[in-house]
Design a protein that fits this description.
The protein has one domain. It is built from 3 helices and 2 strands. A two-stranded antiparallel sheet has the order 1-2. α2 runs antiparallel to α3. It starts with 8 loop residues before the first helix and ends in a 12-residue tail after the last helix.
Length: 104
Amino acid sequence: MHDDRLFKFSGIAQNLSNSPVEPDAIEGRVVLDNVSKQIRECLEHAEECAQKAAELPNGSPFRQDFLQLEKHWLGLARSIEFGEQLDSFTKNRPKPNIKPNVLR
């Protein structure tokens, strides 16, 4: 059973990774290359929440809870990815050539 709200890796892949995504024929999923373990785990949790939500009737309060959890897992994945990008940027940035101010 598929739901329009069902989490699909392809929808977030471009936001989380500059690397290309490769389609996987199984269940219409997309495999993400070059994402950290933490991001991958967040995406897997988000997918599980979306699948559980899709199994519940539209009026179910639990369905809404699972959709909110999915949203939070995706937000966490984006936050982790931003932190990783910032860390990479600061590590790869050349050190400024600042000479100490010597008092005479």
